[in-house]
Amino acid sequence: MTHDPRLILLDPRDNVLVARVRLNAGETVETGTGPAVLDRDIALAHKVARRAIAAGEKILKYGAPIGVATEAIAPAAHVHVHNMRSDYTPTYHLEDERKAGASA
């Protein structure tokens, strides 16, 4: 089954799709696992769940983990800071800490 043309699948391993346009709450989208109704507005370039994602499961975008689900996420649900924890590590902070430690 294919996904809605208003959503982009960046990598076949991804469990999220990216909105190509603004989507409105109440609209039905096809996530690839069946039709689902959006429970909230989805901004351009925001993520929606491609399928059900369990709490603790990695969020995959571009085929790589970008975070972890902090709660169960339903298909077509908005995936953002309210239900995921980012895996992003700002490397400039690590470099600043190394420099600070070297000067001590």
UniProtKB/TrEMBL annotation:
Alphabetic keyword roster: Hydrolase, Lyase
GO MF annotation terms: hydrolase activity; lyase activity
SAF domain mapped to chain residues: 14-85
Swiss-Prot/TrEMBL GO biological process terms: D-galacturonate catabolic process
InterPro entries per UniProt: SAF, SAF_UxaA/GarD, UxaA_altronate/galactarate_dh
Coiled-coil regions, chain positions: none
Protein's recorded name: UxaA family hydrolase
PANTHER family per the UniProt record, alphabetical: ALTRONATE DEHYDRATASE, ALTRONATE/GALACTARATE DEHYDRATASE
Gene3D superfamilies linked to this entry: 2.30.130.110
SMART domains tied to this protein: SAF
Domain of life according to the entry: Bacteria
